[in-house]
């Protein structure tokens, strides 16, 4: 459908353009989005220019004091209403997500519903986020009070666009910040529809969408009138955001790349371990922040494990499937597929064996098969760098100690998984792995509200959980003393 915004045509797919103050679009170059499943056109979205970026930040700045003065309980009421609207529009959002990124519809729908739940969670957590009273002098009162930063720029990712954005937007808004949100240029329609739904209940100027590519994101991150920049995405972009924030004085909150290891002990069932490895490496075509990126398996079960993992990879099929198969969508675009394939071919040239997959399919779209690499060595890129694709590189180790030592190496520190029946090995692993999250005997999962700080090149600050509210506020220390009464 085509609508007019600010006197300029805006060709979009699947969402209704909002008022100009809520969607900042320019009249110049447009983002052209194609479906990675078949290469068909999803739609085009005009990118914002410098004028639109300035107007978006200025509008958010003007709206912030009034929004912050609202009772936090009232902000929570609005967010609960927004969460209900997201649930009602879940199928529309999931359909757009599927069209733009190729994510299987069932997985996309689960992500939308998780996002709606996260918005509702922060609606409840906001009113109980509090400061502390301090023990001072008898005649005074001392306390700390959390205050919003002000204007937050949120640069969100494409691999789970609704769930990721909902956490950041929900926490920022309930704590009294206003937000300028730039969804990923790979799924702008999904991001715009999400923001439009939230804006159905929010006051004018509290949440503004800005469409654009990485240059627009860089421009937003470098603005001196922004107080907090939140980025979920690649490590390279995260470092650029951090450098810009260091110049402007803004706070940077980053969740960036990972190279998460899976350590398979020699005492586990190899078939079960292969199933866990496949879930971790191939879910969402490997395009998850905490995907399994490298596997260290004990030599005692390596042969059986590899055979079972190859069988698991063969079950991952595109499109319609048999009951025993698992649907796997394409990679987000052809350019990203090229990067994934480069790592695979580099490993094969360096001596790795490709047991299954590893070839670019014929035809349109950006599909890539579930791939298993054996005989991997530490110097290969596929073990050193984030692949972000359906690739399971396996390294055989002599014992648990060697596997743990190698799993602990590298620049990233997002998450790690250990499969073992030994409590001693589990205890040793979670203490020694230098990552924010360690999972034992399950590649995905965990209690609601869990939060961790990524380490190293994986970012800085809490990106989820109740602790995210603290990241969105800064504490002010207040001392209330008794004044001296003057003459009447």
Spell out the blueprint of helices and strands.
Elements: E1 2-5, E2 8-11, E3 23-24, E4 30-34, E5 41-46, H1 50-69, H2 72-88, H3 90-101, H4 105-125, E6 132-134, E7 141-148, E8 151-155, H5 161-174, E9 178-182, H6 188-199, E10 207-210, H7 214-221, E11 228-232, H8 235-248, E12 251-255, E13 261-264, H9 270-282, E14 294-298, H10 302-315, E15 316-317, E16 326-327, H11 334-349, E17 353-356, E18 371-374, H12 381-384, E19 391-397, H13 400-407, E20 412-413, E21 415-419, H14 423-432, E22 437-440, E23 455-456, E24 459-460, H15 467-471, E25 473-480
Parallel strand pairs: 3-10, 8-9, 8-11, 9-10, 11-12, 13-14, 13-21, 14-19, 15-16, 18-19, 21-22
Antiparallel strand pairs: 1-2, 4-5, 6-7, 7-25, 12-24, 17-18, 20-23
Helix pairs in contact: 2-4, 2-6, 3-4, 3-6, 4-5, 9-10
Domain Aldehyde dehydrogenase: 29-478
Keywords: Oxidoreductase
InterPro entries: Ald_DH/histidinol_DH, Ald_DH_C, Ald_DH_CS_CYS, Ald_DH_N, Aldehyde_DH_dom
Structural account:
The protein has helices at about 50-70, 70-90, 90-100, 105-125, 160-175, 190-200, 215-220, 235-250, 270-280, 300-315, 335-350, 380-385, 400-405, 425-430, 465-470, and strands at about 1-5, 10, 25, 30-35, 40-45, 130-135, 140-150, 150-155, 180, 205-210, 230, 250-255, 260-265, 295-300, 315, 325, 355, 370-375, 390-395, 410-415, 415-420, 435-440, 455, 460, 475-480. It is α/β, with parallel strands linked by helices and about 500 residues long. A 7-stranded mixed beta sheet has the order 3-10-9-8-11-12-24, sandwiched between helices. Strands 17-18-19-14-13-21-22 form a 7-stranded mixed beta sheet, sandwiched between helices. Helix 3 (about 90-100) runs antiparallel to helix 6 and helix 9 crosses helix 10. The longest helix is centred in the N-terminal third of the chain and has 21 residues, at about 105-125. The chain is globular. It starts with a strand and ends in an 8-residue tail after the last strand.
